[in-house]
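Handoff note, outgoing to incoming analyst
You'll be picking up this chain. Sequence as last confirmed:
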Amino acid sequence: MQTYAVQKFAQQLLEVADNLESAQRAVPAAVLQPGTEISTEKALGYLKALLEGVQATERVLLKQMATKGVERIETAEGDDFDPNTQEAMTTMPAAEGKQPNTVANVWQSGYRMHDRILRAAKVIVYQE
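Most recent structure output, in case you need it:
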């Protein structure tokens, strides 16, 4: 019985796997061969399709994680630094018009499960 305890969750993740597979097909293998020349327009089309596949995958994954109470901690440039949900990886001098002790850049998103932090967001913080 325990062998199949996560079967439903695994089935929910199949859409994520499908989207990743589709994203990989967005760029034909022949295009990646050394010496292959393609137009800028065609290259941008491949990149756009790849990005759309990655974004679709992220949406599905976040939706499935939410069914288990896992959500991304929204952190953006300019937010006040919060040591409860963010980890300062480094600091940098505050640029003109930027407030000290605010987020300069988000390196990695943080996540929580219900009321517990699974991983703090990794950020760069403006200093005085």
